[in-house]
Write a structure and sequence with these properties.
The complex is a heterodimer. Chain A is an all-alpha fold. Chain A has a domain of about 210 residues. Chain A is about 75% helix and about 0% strand. The radius of gyration of chain B is 19 Å and the shape is globular. Classes of the chains: A mainly alpha, B mainly alpha.
């Protein structure tokens, strides 16, 4: 029994290493692009898994924190010409600070009211980015964001950026896995299961709620900074409410009860549009349906239906469906 | 500022507020019966507006018939929504319900853009568009229609809840689910009726507001939050509170647009919502025995 668990664990590590080094053997820009987005979404989705799956607090404003990271770093580096290694951390810190302030609502509110409060914040962010044209460029977007560089070494190709993103993602992953497997992870689960009970055994519920909310905002901020410096152009459309919903989709479909679920979910959400585009290339389909399959907006229809079906039939997501294969738990 | 200006602002505030009152009432009905929030609500408002648009432009029906149709279709969709979407998750956790209604809302919103396109569509007013002039006060017929229909609907809902057996049963179940069950009130029927009336209200609201704001165009979640803000402002647990809250929210919105900013209005309303949630989540009218 122990042996098979160990074997499975090792097979996962080997698979991970193989994926991690696969760009070395076959550097295809399209696959690297997908890999980079999986990495970025993975970081954000991990924050939401810790927040929603472990601590049981809902946030519908992850795209806003993602956008705060992206806009803070993007503005500082493109308009004031600051170095990525200053603007990136500043963007993350700023996202965390705003997350702390929004998290104050999570101390007093629960469930539906908290979801409404975070949606309200998401709308505030969208209105600000859209209407404050002088600062953000408004609907026209913000361009000219420089690539990160260390001295003369520029992280300017997909190949380099892939490793840049995934080294950070692995760091965040290890941090989160240690976090949830230790005392604080059990504290978070106690918040989810029984807030009053947690309070009665001396856990400072408000403090932990605030902490975990800020942490998820920081993760989203990291993702946002990486996104801004990769795509080098950001516009309000990338940070809409629908995008917040997409992060929720990743977490639910991947599996809410484990950090690995965030990975599976971000892979799924990144690959589904590709799969649909592939399906749309079949010549037998009517043109209307083909257009639907290639349009990104309509992916949200699939996401919504899938989330509903997963919640009703497979509440533990792909991760739960695959059994305990991916983890030792 | 002249008196007529103040009256003008109050009047247009009441018009917008009527819509928010209808939406808040829809939130309230679901909230009292199953103690949860329907996050897809605003998307149903948009859907109602779009179906109304199609009935008017494609089938050339008279607007009064369209109104009737809209309420019936809304009720039917409410029935289907309750039966196939809500019932499988009725006994699950609150978070499950939130996420599921959000997901279905996204399906509806993006599904509407499949049929009607992503752009908001202009809808013609019900009768004519010549303003009546009452000593400097300009009153558009559409605004009168909105306010009049809202008053009628609210009166109908009030009569239903206070004077009919079915309405009283719903209130009883809202008050104490177990005691009502002992008296032979089927809680499943109650949730069914609450969704039928709630979604019929949302369709009606979408239909009558669409001449002012256009139909469609990815504003569903804004409607959800604004309807909720109205309900929170007045008191989620009280129907009078929800209606009053909606009306007050409409006046606040018009005041913001008129005197503060037209660009950041929605942002300010969201700030008001956050403030209300933190300071007085039970609203202006508190109901005894509610948490």
């Amino acid at each position: 029994m122990v042996n098979t668990v160990k074997m499975k664990k090792w097979s996962i590590y080997i698979l991970g290493l193989a994926l991690f080094f696969s760009p070395l053997t076959y550097p295809n820009i399209r696959y690297l692009d997908i890999g980079i987005y999986v990495g970025i979404y993975f970081i954000v989705a991990m924050g939401l898994t810790v927040l929603l799956g472990y601590a049981g607090q809902i946030s519908m404003s992850q795209a806003a924190f993602f956008g705060i990271g992206a806009y803070a770093s993007g503005l500082l580096s493109s308009k004031w010409g600051m170095n990525f290694w200053i603007t990136g951390p500043l963007g993350v810190i700023f996202a965390g600070l705003v997350g702390y302030v929004v998290g104050l609502t999570s101390v007093r509110l629960r469930h539906g009211y908290l979801a409404m409060a975070t949606i309200a914040f998401q709308i505030i962010f969208n209105v600000l980015v859209f209407e404050w044209v002088e600062l953000t460029g408004g609907p026209a977007g913000l361009g000219g964001i420089p690539v990160p560089s260390i001295g003369v070494f520029k992280i300017d190709t997909e190949f380099k950026y892939f490793y840049f993103v995934w080294i950070i993602a692995l760091g965040v992953f290890l941090f989160s896995r240690n976090l949830v497997s230790q005392r604080i992870g059990r504290v978070l689960v106690s918040l989810r299961e029984n807030e009053m009970g947690a309070n009665s055994i001396g856990i400072n519920v408000a403090r932990y709620k605030l902490k975990v909310f800020t942490l998820s905002a920081i993760y989203a901020g990291i993702g946002g900074v990486l996104f801004a410096h990769y795509s080098r152009f950001i516009s309000p459309l990338s940070f809409s409410f629908h995008f917040s919903f997409t992060f929720l989709v990743m977490v639910i479909i991947g599996g809410i009860e484990n950090i690995w679920g965030a990975f599976l979910g971000s892979v799924f959400v990144t690959l589904l549009p590709e799969l649909l585009r592939f399906l749309s290339s079949f010549p037998l389909l009517p043109l209307g349906l083909r257009n639907v399959l290639t349009n990104y907006t309509y992916n949200l229809i699939f996401y919504g239906l899938l989330v509903y079906l997963f919640i009703v039939f497979l509440p533990k997501g792909i991760h739960g469906f695959g059994g305990t294969f991916l983890t030792k738990r | 500022m002249a008196t007529s200006d103040v009256l003008q602002i109050i009047f247009s505030g009441l018009t917008i507020g009527s819509i928010y009152a209808l939406m808040a009432l829809g939130f309230h009905i679901v909230y009292i019966t199953i103690k949860n929030l329907n996050f897809g609500y605003g998307m149903f408002v948009v859907l109602g507006g779009l179906i109304g648009y199609t009935l008017v432009t494609q089938f050339h029906l008279h607007f009064s018939i369209v109104l009737l149709f809209i309420v019936v279709i809304g009720g039917l969709i409410g029935l289907l929504f309750e039966r196939f979407i809500v019932r499988p998750i009725l006994d699950r956790s609150i978070l499950t319900f939130i996420i599921c209604t959000l997901a279905i809302g996204e399906v509806i919103e993006n599904g509407t853009s499949l049929f009607w396109g992503a752009e908001a569509l202009p809808v013609q007013v019900f009768t004519n568009n010549v303003p009546l002039n009452l000593s400097g006060l300009k009153i558009f017929p559409q605004n009168l229609w909105i306010i009049g229909l809202t008053i009628l609907t609210v009166a109908g809902i009030k009569i239903y809840f206070n004077f009919t057996l079915a309405g009283k049963a719903m209130r009883a179940a809202a008050n104490n689910r177990w005691a009502a069950k002992l008296c032979g009130i089927n809680p499943l029927k109650v949730s069914c009726f609450s969704f039928i009336s709630s979604l019929a209200l949302s369709f009606l609201a979408g239909m009558i507001i669409s001449p002012l704001t256009f139909a469609g165009g990815f504003v569903g979640i804004h409607y959800t939050v604004k309807g909720f803000t109205g309900a929170i402002l007045g008191g989620m647990a009280s129907s009078t509170g929800s209606i009053l809250g909606g009306l007050v929210l409409g006046i606040i919105e018009v005041l913001l647009k008129g005197f503060v900013t037209t660009r950041f209005t929605d942002g300010f309303i969201m700030l008001i919502l956050l403030f209300l949630l933190l300071v007085r989540p039970e609203g202006l009218i508190r109901v005894e025995g509610e948490e």
